[in-house]
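Subject: sequence -> structure tokens, single chain

Hey, anyone have a minute? Need the predicted structure for the following. Not urgent.
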Amino acid sequence: MGMTQVLAARAGKITPEMEFVAAGENLDAEYIREGVASGTIVIPRNIKRKEFNYCGIGRGLRIKVNALIGTSSNRDDLAMEETKLNFVEDAGCDSMMDLSTGGNIDGMRRLCLDKASIAVGSVPVYQAAIEAIEKRGAIVAMTADDMFEAVEKHAADGIDFMAIHSALNFSVVKRLQETGRVTDVVSRGGSFLTAWMLHNNRENPLYEQFDRLLEILKKYDVTLSLGDAIRPGCTADSLDAAQLQGLIVAGELVARTQAAGVQIMVEGPGHVPMHHVEATMLLQKRLCNNAPYFILGTLATDVAPGYDHITSAIGGAIAGAAGADFLCYVTPAEHLGLPTEQDVKDGVMATRIAAHAADLARGNKQAWDRDLQMARARVELDINRQISLSLDPGKVKAGLSEFHDHDHCAVCGEECAAQVAARYFGIA
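Reply:
Had a minute. Here:
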């Protein structure tokens, strides 16, 4: 078994991956090494994959953005998913996840690994559950070996990080049963495992045999993304007893994972009203030894279907400012159906805006420099510079395509407020 990023960092070694991340963040490589060694930074990178654009996730780094694609029984179109993947990369996402639950699941995963130049994640229990239906007629007919074989298969193929719902056990399920919820379990992986546990009256194998899981992940240096099986599915359920119980269990597993020399980040909610966001971040960081926090949202309200890329951007910006390290995009189709290519684009851009706004709030020097350069480019009427500095250069270029007079503001014309004032201040 080779040396993982964590074990290398603890031995004082700076790996090529750490150097790559340090260069991209304009930080000293020793800072990255110390973060990986302590568990406050992860670098998802399976040893089976060729070189790609590694990303560091965690304390002191730029907030990263993740996108979701994948096939289902209702839509098994690899060409469409490849188009989404291309846009995800072109739009500047730092990672993507294959969440396939139907069709050619193996083919979709291998397509992602072959084509992507960013980190690739997956949820192995999805495939284990679907194959249990095909072979035995029901999700609850999965075996523990089915689950671990799926993890091994995804790891051997080269998946860099995996969402695995190990922090769901009977103590969490019991708390949920005793206290009740409006939405119960909205995590797909969490629902599969909850049904399995209650039907078979057995503990979650991914919790009960956690050391077995860690052995597989360590073998391939896969980063564990500890799935939030009990995340709130509506604002009314935010910070309830079940969510807090799940966080306590997650904290215990983070300690075991870090001790084993495996990289880990923790997934979080979900639907969270704005005044709960900071408390949620503080609880996670406190209970999980400051492991990177991977946010699935957060959605600030439940009443905007069709616009959930906006509700999640609101919550995501606040979460990032309060300590979240990794934002998963939400598309306008979140509560309506499967996302189209346009939905993916809208979701990516909304989340990148949220991440950048949060980076500003956290004092990230690169983010502040980019904003400053954009402001100067506007004053100087430097159209090309404005295009290159924007989060969506294509949209800005298209919007300015009919504006040919670079001597005047595209919006205000000759009487631009900034230009009029600048003349008298001697700036322009």
